[in-house]
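Can you please make up a whole protein chain along with its backbone structure tokens because I've never seen that pairing?
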Amino acid sequence: GRFIAALGAQVGVDPARAPLAIAARLGVAAVQAVAERLPVRAASCGAVLFVVALSFVADPMAALREARRVLAPRGAVIIGEVPASSPMGKRYRAMGAAGHPFYHQARFFTPEALAGLLAASGLQTDRIRSSRLDRDGGADTPGSTFEGLDHQANFVAVSARPW
């Protein structure tokens, strides 16, 4: 709900009701569904966004194949994720292992694993941007962004297109 309004997306999909309610309050159309079975016609979307979402879907490969199915010609799948090997990824994985109610179900990917999922689903990476977070008075704040993969980045955005 929060990300979709900020990104200017036209329709959001989420299996949970709370994010749908947030989207509705922000004036964004949202549908209750799962990424593995999008209620969208084939080749009808200019882009499909997964913003800190791929780590939480039941079947990431099925979600990426479904994203590819609904992409219009020249469309792109945009994925924003916290890499497993990043400082933040390690922190979230430790929280999950300790039973955190949100992170215990998360499956964080290394950049290499994400590239493998993309390739296996018929998508090819065409751009990567990395961002580090800075510690400002104990709080994480957006830091420098880099073109390409920075292995210390706490957030990585990947654009992929069908090959």
Observations:
- The CA atoms of residues 62 and 109 lie 16 Å apart.
- The chain has five helices and seven strands.
